[in-house]
C-alpha cells in the first residue's frame, strides 16, 4: 500500500460518483462495457462489506438521445426540412432518468445485488428534516446491503445559480453531480469519495499536453495557481474544474477524495487497495511531505534484493514462475484487452500516427503469442550458473568461468506493451531485477500487464523484482544510479536513445533507428526477390526490422526486373520515394534523406552500380540493424555478408527474421547495434555476465614459489 493512501484502510462507507463522460461514449450512446465494469466493482465491494453509495450522471444525455429518435419518428418530411430546435433539458432528464435506472437495476440484478433510486434537488438540503430523513433512509438501505443510487432531479430543478461555496456544512446548494457527491459524502458521513473521470486524475495542464504531469497528491497551497484546466466535460455540466472544486471542499470538510479514471475496469478496487493511482485530496496532505516515499534508489535496491532471492531458487522453480506468467496472461486476456483498447482509443483521439497505434495495439492473438514465447523461455536450458570454461591452474587448483545475471536492468520503451512481457520474462529467466518505464500512451496496458505478471511472483521472491516506473520525472534519478543499476536498454526513437546515452554513466545497450535494406542483385531470382521485399515491407511495417530502403542493381532496370519489383510493392499499397537515380528513372518524388525510418507502408528505392555500391550505401546511410541480399551468386552474397557493417546480414531471407523469438531466443530485450557486450537480437545470453570460481585445497601464492602452473583445459560437466 502506498504511504499516501494508508487512510483507505479505515474506509467503510464509500461514495462513488460516475460522470456523463464515463457513462456515455463519444457518440452519446451508453458505454455498456464501462457501466458493466462499474457495477461489477460495486458488487465486489458490497460483498466485501463496504457500504457503497453511487452518484450517477447520464440521464439527460440518455433522454436526449431517446427524444431525438422520437421526434424524428413523429416528424413529417416537411417538418424535417425546418430547423430543429434543441430539446428541453428537463424533458430529457425526465425521460432519461427512468431509462438509466432501469439499466442499473437490470445490471445489478444480474449480479444478485439490489439497488434503489433516490432523486434529490438542491433546495432539499436546506431542510433539516429532509436531511435527517435522508440519512435514516440511506442507513436502512445500507444495512440491507442495498446500493443507493443518487441523481439530481433535473426534471423539476429550479436552480438558477451555480454551486460555488465550500461544504462547511450541508445546508448549501449544489450545481452538478460532482458537488452533489461531495455534499452527500459529508451529509452521509462517508469515509471516502471517489470521483470517476475520463482521464487518470488531475494533471498540471490539459491531459493531452505532453508537458502535463499527473498530480498524485493535491496540495491546495501548491497547486491551486499552477494548474491550467482543459476543456469542460464534453457532455455534462462539470468537467475537471467541477471535480476539483468538489474535491477541495469535501477534503476541507474531512472527507478524503480520489479522482481517477472510470475507463479502467478495476480502478475503484485498486483505490481501496491503496494503490497510487489518480489524485488524492486530503485535509492533511500538506503535512505528507514527511511521509517516506519509495525513491528511485529504493526501487532499484528492492529489485536487486528480489533478484538475489530469485537466483537462489532452483532452476525448476524459476521455470514454474514463467509458466505461471504464461497462464496468467491467457487467463486475464479480456482484462488486458479492455485496458489496451482504452489506450488505443485515447491514441486515436489524440491523433497519433498509424504506426504508433499499430505498435500499441494488443490483439488477442498477440497476447497468445506472448504466452507461447514465455513458455518457450521456460523450456530453455538453464542459463544461470552454466560452466563456460574449466581450467586446471595447478594440481588440485581448478578455475571455472560461470554465467551469472547482470543485476538490475532499466528498460525504457515507447508504445509497445508487448515489450513489457518479453522483457519481464527474460529478466525472470536470467535472474535479473528489472525496472520498466513504458510510454505514456500505453500506461493502462502496461499497468495491467505488470499487475498480471507480478501477481504470480512467489512470496520468496516478491513483486518488487519487477518495478514499474509510472512517471518520467523519475527517469533522471534512475539514470544516476550507476551503483545499483547495471544496464540501461532504451527502446524507441533515435532522440530517446541519444538522450539516455548523454544522461548516464550506466552502460547503455540498444539501437537508435531501424533502417533496414534489401539489395536485389543482378543475378537474383526475381520471383524470390518479389516475395522477400513484399514480406520485408508489408508483414509488419512498424517493426524495426522492416525494409525501409530497396537497392536494385542497375542491370535490372534494363531487363524488366525493376518494373516487376515496383509493381509488387504497388499492389501492396506501398508508397515509394526515390534516390536521385530512381526518382529520375521512375518519375517518383525524390526522398529528402536516405537515413529515414518510415515505420509505415512507405519505402525508398535507389539504383546502384553493383554489390560494392550497395555495401557503400548501406554503411553510409544505414543504422547497423539488418540487411539482406537477394542473389543466386554465392560469391557476391559472401562479399555482401562479410562487408556490410550491421548486426545482422541475410542472404535470400526477409529482414523480418531478425527477431529474438524467430532466432529461437524465446524473446528479446531489444536489438542492439552496439559492438560491445551484445549485438543483434538480445535474448537471455545478452543479459548475463560471468564470474570466476576458484576451487583449491589450501594453496597460497607466496611469490609463486612452490606453485607449478599447468593451465590444462578440462572438459565441461554439469
Describe the protein in words.
The protein has 718 residues and is an alpha/beta fold. The chain has 3 domains: 6-281, 3-Layer(aba) Sandwich (Carbamate kinase); 296-503, Aldehyde Dehydrogenase, Chain A, domain 1, CATH 3.40.605; 516-668, Aldehyde Dehydrogenase, Chain A, domain 2. The protein contains 24 helices and 24 strands. Helix 15 (364-378) runs parallel beside helix 16 (417-430). Residues 160-174 and 231-238 have low confidence and may be disordered. This is Delta-1-pyrroline-5-carboxylate synthase. Pathway: Amino-acid biosynthesis; L-proline biosynthesis; L-glutamate 5-semialdehyde from L-glutamate: step 1/2; Amino-acid biosynthesis; L-proline biosynthesis; L-glutamate 5-semialdehyde from L-glutamate: step 2/2. Keywords: Amino-acid biosynthesis, ATP-binding, Kinase, Multifunctional enzyme, NADP, Nucleotide-binding, Oxidoreductase, Proline biosynthesis, Transferase. P5CS plays a key role in proline biosynthesis, leading to osmoregulation in plants.
Would you state the CATH class of the largest domain?
Alpha Beta
Shape: globular
Name the CATH superfamily classification of the largest domain: Acetylglutamate kinase-like
Question: Number of domains in the coordinates?
Answer: 3
Strand content: 15-25%
Main sheet properties: 8 strands, mixed
Tell me the span between the first and last alpha carbons.
Answer: 43 Å
In percent, how helical is the residue content?
A: 25-40%
Number of strands: 24
Based on the coordinates given, report the CATH architecture of the largest domain: 3-Layer(aba) Sandwich
Q: Mean pLDDT across all residues, rounded?
A: 85
Question: How many DSSP helices?
Answer: 24
CATH topology of the largest domain: Carbamate kinase
How are the strands ordered across the major sheet?
A: 3-4-2-1-5-7-8-6
Catalytic activity: L-glutamate + ATP = L-glutamyl 5-phosphate + ADP; L-glutamate 5-semialdehyde + phosphate + NADP(+) = L-glutamyl 5-phosphate + NADPH + H(+)
Family: In the N-terminal section; belongs to the glutamate 5-kinase family.
InterPro entries: AceGlu_kinase-like_sf, Ald_DH/histidinol_DH, Ald_DH_C, Ald_DH_N, Aldehyde_DH_dom, Asp/Glu/Uridylate_kinase, G-glutamylP_reductase_CS, Glu/AcGlu_kinase
Keywords: Amino-acid biosynthesis, ATP-binding, Kinase, Multifunctional enzyme, NADP, Nucleotide-binding, Oxidoreductase, Proline biosynthesis, Transferase
